């Protein structure tokens, strides 16, 4: 479970996150939806302790991120916006590197890698150096290495960015699978359909604030819009009353 | 396994897979420099030998006016050549190093027992040519003195009355010290070897990793940042040290083939030199590798890092330059300054001069102190939030 309470983060005068609060529960997929520049990536970066919040608290499975960042990172699987691989290592070696950084033994790394390679259907590329991988192959490798330690919580920053239709579908199936395994899945997106198709809960974020935190149906009901896209536009749009 | 070791092993393995970089750091860098060095020394030595042994080619204008002088020069291993059309021009165009011109009135003065003028045309700004001119001047002085002495004797006077002083030169240079002037650039070659060895990794593991967008996922692992930094620094230092070690070994091997003995120089490049040089180079190489990493981590992009690190390369050249142009007396404080102390110690070892144990200790301790400072600075940079985030 991931809890965010009154999170604030500014870079100089630019306020990126301005009092965001929400909860992502186990066994659910939570979507962080917002336009570009809404503060999604900064919020996630505070979650996986790459950044220190100026104010507010982040807790993962009840552990406070400021007081014990290492324990928090241990419980998180992270697919950041930056998903560079080591191009002179094979996909399997890329995965194993992160496994070793998590302190896993070689047998566990082997077993988990095999499982991830099968689950992500990447058997044909596992022993290849990652130089020249397609975007889809890169994302698969990045996910496999992010989940090597079998984390209870998974954070993905725009996971379908740059993926083609087939790869996007595979990614969605994979997220559903993580959910079925009882994990807490939190991902950010600016794509309406994706969030609608996947999420149990949608957190709409605009100008660094959470403007809605509902199930897709409740969201439609709350805004009185027939479809989610209209609801989204109303939530983040020029409607000052909602955004404030 | 400790994360420190995991990062170290991964960086080493990844770098070893980059064949070109490995070739550059482990072969070209450490071997090229000593090779160039030997080539340089060989040229200098050969030139010195040539000067002494080869006949001096000398175009002479008006040779027919002074047959005796010409005969005397020929006896002294001078090869008399026909006169060029324009002596001054021939010298300016470097067709001749030095030209001798004898006037038509030479014989008149000579017969009267008065000083007869001869002209030496040369260009002092040409190093080799002015050495040749010096050789000719010595021969002419000799000839003049000898005939002068004969004239005095003919008048019943002792030639000794022309000499009020007897000059006895006592040169205190030893064969080693003469050689060491040539070799004061050597420490820089060692330092350069380490620099080239660490450069690729220093940039690759910092701004390179950030630019390839793999630093953010790396930092999301449950590992303290100082361990990640430590692993990266050790990998860079390891490659730099390997480079320096190869450089020292290469030099020790190639140094044996240097024809220094021919010009009366001996070099102290035994195991004692290699051990001493490595001892002082070890902490310095680590310091430079850390400095490279710090500078590269500080840079905003890969290109910027390359520029900074390349500029950094000029810093170690400063003491070497100083020493090869200006003779500087060794003083105790010099042992306390990183770079300078290595320069002083390696040069003294080469000369076969004594290096006090306290000198070694001071050099190593102070360089390690500087290393600690740079490491602390790198840790600070690594702790900053902005580090991981690429534009």
Widest β-sheet, arrangement of strands of chain B: 2-1-3-4
- CA-based shape of chain B: elongated
Profile the largest sheet of chain B.
4 strands, mixed
- In DSSP terms (H or I, runs of 4 or more residues), the helix count of chain A works out at 10
Structural class of chain A: alpha/beta
Oligomeric status: heterodimer
Radius of gyration of chain A: 18 Å
Overall average residue pLDDT of chain B: 85
Query: N-to-C SSE series of chain B?
Result: HHEHEHEHEHHHHHHHHHH
Helix-strand topology string of chain A: EEEHEEHEHHHEHEHEEHHH
Terminal residue distance of chain B: 33 Å
Share of residues in helices of chain A: 25-40%
According to DSSP, the number of beta strands of chain B is 4
Largest interface: A-B, 30 and 27 residues
- Nearest-integer average pLDDT of chain A: 89
Short description:
The complex is a heterodimer of chains A (244) and B (391). Chain A is of the alpha/beta class and 244 residues long. Helix content of chain A is 39%, strand content 25%.
What topology emerges from the helices and strands here?
The complex is a heterodimer of chains A (244) and B (391).
Chain A: E1 2-11, E2 14-24, E3 29-33, H1 40-47, E4 55-60, E5 63-64, H2 69-74, E6 76-79, H3 91-101, H4 106-119, H5 135-146, E7 153-157, H6 165-180, E8 184-189, H7 192-198, E9 201-206, E10 209-214, H8 216-223, H9 228-236, H10 240-243
Helix pairs in contact in A: 3-4, 3-5, 8-9
Chain B: H1 3-16, H2 19-53, E1 56-61, H3 67-75, E2 78-81, H4 87-92, E3 98-102, H5 106-112, E4 118-122, H6 127-154, H7 175-182, H8 186-211, H9 215-219, H10 225-254, H11 271-298, H12 302-312, H13 317-325, H14 340-351, H15 357-383
Parallel strand pairs in B: 1-2, 1-3
Antiparallel strand pairs in B: 3-4
Helix pairs in contact in B: 1-10, 2-8, 2-10, 7-14, 8-10, 8-11, 8-12, 10-11, 11-12, 11-14, 11-15
